[in-house]
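Deliverable D2.4 — example input (structure tokens):
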């Protein structure tokens, strides 16, 4: 029986890389019943809402979505697409892998790590306000970072369980508890408690976030699974993407108890939209993460291997990878390598 999955093509280059990804999945024999829905500017044009109820209802039915890049319009009355999805489905774990694909062509040849970011708490909860002093209503601004024991426990447990399930050796807890002793201190304390339950199975270490940023540049191969809070995860996830060539090969997953949404984490790239030259690699790798989530590991591995082999050969690459191929040409080259 076909697996129902919500498909959100997105904006800009989204539809083009989505079609390419679907082509490759079909060529690999994935039996998926796609439920195509709109979001972002494409949805505004039809529904006057960047995240229509029918799209949310589809994800509620399928519990799975593959999402291209979305543009959230600026203006009152519109919901942030990402915030709407995280709140609606409590997508508490953002998972961002980074793996070296082109040995010898970049500075970092041995990167193979996964960042697990808490996705619903911290400074991004949006609890903030201005403070009036004298006649100035905006004399100061205050943002509140909310860290809960429950939220910290589930993200640390997710990271350690991910490490066990995927044969990873070590989890690094990244924090700033030396300065933010209450909020970051709680996050670290809970992480230590969870780590004790994996003693003898998973190595654990702790890193202050600024030292972590330096260590990632100097010795990224020393890390395996990284778990951290929302803001730090947002920053470090882009840093690790840069280590392996940029966002064009950076997939992401947003995982919750009720749903999982897989996505390309790059933007809509309006400068090359409709030109047929975008790299579908990030969305394709996100689709492979989705297959892994479904337990279809062999197919996910086949697709990844075909894409990596195509990139390493260097003959049929899109512009961001150093070539001149179109999206369709790159897609066809990957399909030709499927085993």
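Example output (designed residues):
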């Amino acid at each position: 029986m076909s697996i129902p999955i919500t498909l959100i093509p997105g904006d800009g280059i989204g539809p083009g890389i989505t079609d390419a990804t679907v082509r490759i999945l079909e060529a690999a024999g994935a039996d998926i019943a796609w439920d195509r829905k709109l979001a972002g500017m494409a949805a505004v044009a039809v529904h006057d809402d960047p995240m229509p109820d029918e799209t949310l209802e589809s994800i509620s039915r399928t519990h799975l979505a593959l999402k291209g890049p979305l543009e959230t319009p600026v203006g009152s009355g519109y919901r942030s697409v990402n915030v709407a999805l995280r709140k609606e489905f409590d997508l508490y774990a953002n998972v961002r892998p980074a793996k070296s694909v082109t040995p010898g062509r970049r500075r970092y040849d041995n990167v193979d790590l996964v960042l697990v970011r808490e996705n619903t708490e911290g400074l991004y909860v949006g609890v903030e306000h201005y403070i009036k002093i004298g006649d100035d209503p905006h004399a100061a601004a205050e943002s509140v970072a909310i860290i809960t024991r429950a939220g910290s426990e589930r993200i640390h447990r997710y990271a350690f369980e991910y490490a066990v399930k995927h044969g990873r050796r070590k989890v690094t807890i990244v924090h700033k508890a030396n300065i933010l002793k209450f909020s970051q201190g709680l996050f670290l304390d809970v992480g230590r408690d969870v780590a004790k339950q994996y003693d003898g199975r998973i190595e654990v270490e702790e890193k202050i976030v600024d030292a972590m940023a330096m260590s990632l540049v100097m010795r990224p191969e020393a890390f395996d699974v990284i778990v951290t809070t929302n803001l730090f995860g947002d920053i470090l996830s882009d840093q690790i993407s840069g280590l392996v060539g940029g966002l064009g090969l950076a997939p992401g997953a947003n995982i919750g108890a009720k749903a999982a949404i897989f996505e390309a984490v790059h933007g809509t790239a309006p400068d090359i939209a409709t030109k047929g030259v975008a790299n579908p690699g990030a969305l394709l790798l996100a689709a492979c993460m989705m297959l892994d989530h479904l337990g279809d590991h062999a197919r996910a591995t086949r697709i990844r291997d075909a894409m990596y082999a195509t990139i390493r050969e260097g003959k049929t690459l899109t512009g961001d990878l150093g070539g001149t191929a179109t999206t369709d040409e790159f897609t066809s080259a990957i399909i030709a390598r499927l085993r």
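The mean pLDDT is 94.
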